[in-house]
Amino acid sequence: MISQFFVLSQRGDSIVFRDYRGEVPKGSAEIFFRKVKFWKEDGQEEAPPVFNVDGVNYFHVKVVGLFFVATSRVNVSPSLVLELLQRVARVIKDYLGILNEDSLRKNFVLVYELLDEVIDFGYVQTTSTELLKSYVFNEPIVIDAGRLQPLNPATIFTQGTKRMPGMAVTKSVVANEPGGRKREEIFVDIIEKISVTFSSSGYILTSEIDGTIQMKCYLTGNPEIRLALNEDLSIGGGSGRSVYDSRSSFGSGAVMLDDCNFHESVRLDNFDLDRTLTLVPPDGEFPVMNYRLTQEFKPPFRINTLIEEAGALKAEVILKISAEFPSSITANAVSVQMPLPKYTTRATFELEPGAIGQTTDFKEANKRLEWGLNKIVGGSEHTLRAKLAFSRELHGNITKEAGPVSMTFTIPMYNASRLQVKYLQIAKKSNTYNPYRWVRYVTQANSYVARL
């Protein structure tokens, strides 16, 4: 049971606020933001998704830089509320096309209408984009997609090639294009978040992939879709062999998933026979399939770190990143971080000759080295040297007081599991009906860590 729902900007401005039950003080939005800001200023990690202040439970998720928050005084399931917040954000994006502060402010009437249909007196009614069409009548005010900040997954695909139109998925499910036309197209995105932990000698200690097949459909008449995956796909551990030595990221070899689940609209009549999913897609964006893989796979990056003393009050760090994916693929927004000894006072950096699009920084407040690379081409290597100065002499092993090295990145048109959409078939209405089909891949770092 939800008492309030509100959306705040990164500055703490209240964009949307709906009080369903009148049980929580009106200043809850300010209380929430101050609490979250306190967590960050105290040098700790960001505020947890659920916390309690003066008997009020605060639940929040951060979506494209916005805080989606719900409050309650009762002992409600945290996972249920957090899932609700994610679904509300998705429904709003489906109707507005673009989810950002500007689109929310310009479409506040439509947003409030959606919220009143999704939640009634604190109780959830529906989060189905398709069902809401019968009750929501306001038209969205279209926001220029060119002004969209690069914060959401849609913009991941805008770089590199014209066959990946990221901005095309920023359309509303209820608004047609100028002239009343409706562009017939369907998007299928295979998004994988990988977690890898390397030992100090470079061996893989843990590896896991959390993946999802997302679909967004702009097809009239709700035609039936057939989605074919790898024929050699195995679910439930398979033979247990490693896929680490597969010939290529998109090469042959069995794909073995630990487990998976499907959207309620998916029919699995032929899945065991030919790994084909059949569905009539609902309106809006939705996950066709979620899956998890813990078999050992080939990581996209190798991280080598060397740290050694260079005198009584000095040390040198050498960081080397090797991109182990094809040269036709480029990783974007790469960031490397490394905690340094607490008594580090200064760090000077030396990049490789001719380095372009790279930044370095020493965060003195929390003693952390940061290295940013705009892009890394597959097969390339990059090195950073950092000279450290300390306020006191070293005692013991310096590697015990530094690290581990962590890395974040996004790699469009690459997936580590090798799961593929072999074909996307749409039940034809006529011989001339040929909608656009877009199948796109992206891999992101969830927890990518190398110990020293």
Automatic annotation (TrEMBL):
GO biological process: Golgi to lysosome transport; intracellular protein transport; protein targeting
Top-level taxon of origin: Eukaryota
UniProt KW keywords: Membrane, Protein transport, Transport
Family: Belongs to the adaptor complexes medium subunit family.
PANTHER family attached to this UniProt entry: AP COMPLEX SUBUNIT MU
Coiled-coil residues: none
Main location (coarse class): membrane
Name of the molecule in the record: MHD domain-containing protein
Residue ranges of every copy of the MHD domain listed in the record: 183-451
Pfam families, sorted: Adap_comp_sub (PF00928), Clat_adaptor_s (PF01217)
Listed GO CC annotations: clathrin adaptor complex; cytoplasmic vesicle; cytosol; trans-Golgi network
Organism whose genome encodes this protein: Manihot esculenta
Compartment(s): Endomembrane system
